[in-house]
Design a protein that fits this description.
single chain, 191 residues, alpha+beta, 2 domains, two-stranded parallel ribbon, 5 helices
Length: 191
């Protein structure tokens, strides 16, 4: 067997093992997010009753960053259980398309969970992607980047030291120089 064939065989085995590991991690995340969905549906943070009564849960920054979406197609990545996607749909995108790591999460919430629910699936995996990887993936997909803004706040309390300010965002005390979130707008060029 030649070195190239040995290398190909090793790479193939490694790739298959990596795929199996990735699949197991994706399955574990899906199970956890399915359980979190039930908990989140009942949480004050999402306030489904107010949403169902017509409350728009989009924050002013999100609306300003995307601008007018009427007549546009919207792909909402990591929408969780679809509440924000439905808020966008109320604003007029032609066909909002939610995506989520879970099957249960991609349909709008239909039931409420007991807020004392304990999740059986407690393992979670995270894939960190650098800002450069994210931007390059969009560019490689042929999208045009319109802007990239970094923000010194988070939508939730990521670390115990964070404090929620009057604007509803969570900040690190005394730090406005550390980006904790970002917004990026890209478009598919006209053909």
């Amino acid at each position: 067997m030649t070195d190239a064939k040995i290398d190909a065989k090793i790479d193939g085995t490694t790739a298959a093992r990596a795929d199996a590991t990735t699949d197991a991690r994706v399955d574990a995340n899906r199970a956890l997010w399915n359980e979190w969905t039930a908990v989140h549906e009942a949480s004050a943070f999402y306030d489904l009753a107010a949403f169902k009564a017509g409350r728009d849960t989009l924050r002013p920054l999100e609306v300003a960053e995307l601008g007018d979406v009427s007549g546009k197609t919207l792909l909402h990545l990591m929408c969780h259980f679809g509440q924000d996607t439905l808020c966008w749909a109320r604003r007029g995108p032609g066909s909002p398309a939610p995506t989520s790591p879970t099957r249960r999460s991609t349909s709008p919430a239909r039931s409420y969970a007991d807020s004392t629910t304990v999740c059986a699936n407690t393992v979670s995996y995270q894939w960190d992607h650098t800002l450069g990887e994210i931007v390059c993936a969009l560019v490689d997909a042929g999208l045009g980047i319109e802007f990239l803004h970094e923000w010194p706040f988070s939508v939730y309390r990521r670390w115990p030291s964070m404090v929620e300010e009057k604007d509803g965002w969570w900040y690190l005390p005394g730090r406005r120089d550390v980006p904790l979130s970002f917004s990026l707008r890209a478009h598919k060029p006209a053909r």
